[in-house]
Amino acid sequence: MDGMDGMERNAGGVGRWLAARRSERARGRRVARGEAAERRRAAGSGFSNPANPRRSVGLTVACSLFAVYCLLPFAYLAVNATKTQADFTSTFGLGFGRSFALWDNLAGVFSYQGGIFGRWLLNTVLYVVAGAGGATLLAVMGGYALAKFRFPGRRAVFLVVIGAISVPGIALAVPQFLLFAKLGLTDTPWAMIVPSLVSPFGLYLMWIFSEQAVPGELLEAARVDGAGEWRTFRTVSLPLLAPGIVTTALFSIVATWNNYFLPLIMLKDSSWYPLTIGLNQWKDQASTAGGQAIQNLVITGSLVTIVPLIIAFLLLQRYWQSGLSAGAVKE
């Protein structure tokens, strides 16, 4: 009897194993049919399935054309910064000149007109550090407060911020000029720094990001442990807000670095010019009576101007991370 029972148990185990194998093969066939259907759908729509990557010719061509469109201006700057003034006016724009003059052009940029380009560069750095840095700090603190605290007038603030975003900055330039003229601040660095501190888009961005990135449960846990609001903000919230802070900072840095119209109407003293106005002054001097054409220096100066922005993007991009709080709160 024991032998019979053992044989029945073995037969039952073999049967279960065979049933499991049949179920696994059936599941494999279903998965294969699903993947084949997904590949057919992807081929018809022009996109690839991430689990079964396929090359989309149309998407590759479109991305290549967009990349060329974006990189062509940089290629133009890099190529023409190596030319002399004579080569710049006598050779093809995307072709190299007869001589490699990049180092001479760089020396000329920083020595022309008594080295005024270096002063313009320092001015721009000052405006970015004080203006864009202050705008980022105010946007982070204001956005976090609006997202995590409830107070009377919060909806009115939201409407004001949305309204400020919808107003183009150029429409405020003349009123700002009249206000700063009354205060006697035109033709001073404050005329560039103070307006740069206000960033409605940065405030709105940090408001929305703080709402999603900082779970209320973490704040409650920190408060239960005895942490004050400032310590909670500094030790708990700021690490979670890093991607939003970097994004806001980059937007503010680029906007301040490339600002043209505001310094054009605010500044008359060339010693306070940023790079945008200074390089434009060099470009226009060829059209004045007795002016010297220095397009090679303008192009080289423009190339030098974008290098700090590229460095800023390369240094800050590693902070662009998402999901830092994923798993921090048990659902």
Describe this structure in words.
- This protein has two domains: 59-100, no CATH class; 115-319, MetI-like (MetI-like fold, Orthogonal Bundle).
- The protein is flat, with a radius of gyration of 31 Å.
- The protein is an all-alpha fold and 331 residues long.
- It contains 15 helices and no strands.
Annotate the secondary structure layout.
Blueprint: H1 2-45, H2 57-80, H3 85-90, H4 102-111, H5 116-148, H6 154-166, H7 173-183, H8 190-196, H9 200-213, H10 216-224, H11 229-240, H12 242-257, H13 261-266, H14 275-284, H15 295-316
Helix pairs in contact: 2-15, 4-15, 5-8, 5-9, 5-12, 6-9, 9-12, 10-11, 12-15, 14-15
Q: Spans of 5+ residues with little confidence (pLDDT < 50)?
A: 322-331
Please report the distance between the alpha carbons of the first and last residues. 55 Å
SS-derived structural category = mainly alpha
Shape: flat
Strand content: under 5%
Task: State the name of the first-level CATH class of the largest domain.
Answer: Mainly Alpha
Radius of gyration: 31 Å
CATH topology of the largest domain: MetI-like fold
* Total of helices: 15
Count of individual domains: 2
Largest sheet: none
